[in-house]
Design a protein that fits this description.
The chain has seven helices and nine strands; from the N terminus they run E-H-E-H-H-E-E-H-H-E-E-E-H-E-H-E. With 241 residues, the chain is α/β, with parallel strands linked by helices. The two termini are 21 Å apart.
């Protein structure tokens, strides 16, 4: 695994550079590129930038297969829906085939949907290490409690879980979510944490310093087995670095 940290003056500058990077990756890809998105305010800035020129038309969206890292168990029109946010910010603004969009059906029965989504990923994605599905690029966020996707501290979907996706429960609200597991994220060719805001600064420093106490954070266990890990952060999130 190789790792790098990139610091930007603002979320907008970060989003621009990340959009340029995605455009370059799509151009280099001969076939499809398989990516997985996260929800939240920072990814929304990134997706909104992709929906603007030049990326809106210059990226060959026919080659981009879009999945999600996690989803709240709500319908797509709900304000908490990760898919709904992406649809409004990006998908409705670009010319992408509907067959390239692989949403987690949040309004379905959580356990059944996690199985269905796992089967869809298994069927569509190329396979990498140990014949396990492999994303080309996974975009992750970071919570103040060190969670990423819906991998919360003490979650059953971290560490030894061998599934592709499963059901998570928010430790405070009790809300059910469907999430990719640590295993499939770590099987990706590339994983990028996209983090903004000073509220994440302390947790981020502990993880990047690889302190013993950071092991309680699920995000600290994201280390691609045979891929690259990079951190895209603004100066506020980098406050203690």
């Amino acid at each position: 695994m190789t790792s790098s940290v990139k610091i930007f003056d603002s979320p907008q500058q970060l989003a621009l550079k990340l959009a340029e990077e995605l455009e370059n990756e799509v151009e280099k890809t001969l076939d499809n590129i398989y990516i997985s998105l996260s929800g939240g305010n920072t990814p929304k800035v990134f997706l909104s930038r992709l929906a603007q020129p030049p990326f809106k038309t210059d990226i060959n969206w026919n080659k981009v297969q879009i999945f999600w890292c996690d989803e709240r168990c709500v319908p797509p029109f709900d304000s908490e829906s990760n898919y709904g946010m992406a649809k409004h910010a990006l998908l409705d603004q670009i010319n992408i085939p509907s067959m390239n969009i692989h949403r987690i059906i949040g309004e379905s029965h959580p356990e059944k949907e996690s199985v269905r989504y796992s089967k869809e990923i298994e069927k569509i994605l190329p396979h990498g290490v140990d014949n396990f599905p492999q994303f080309d690029w996974v975009f992750l966020g970071l919570g103040e409690d060190g969670h990423t996707a819906s991998l919360f501290p003490n979650s059953d979907l971290t560490y030894s879980c061998s599934n592709i996706a499963g059901v998570a429960v928010h430790p405070v609200t009790g809300q059910k979510r469907i999430s990719l597991t640590e295993k499939i994220i770590n099987n990706s060719k590339r994983v990028s944490f996209v983090i903004t805001g000073k509220s994440k600064a302390t947790t981020l420093k502990e993880i990047l310093d690889d302190l013993a106490e950071s092991k309680k954070y699920p995000a600290s266990h994201i280390k691609p087995l045979n891929g690259n890990l990079d951190w895209w952060i603004d100066k506020e999130a980098a406050f203690y670095l």
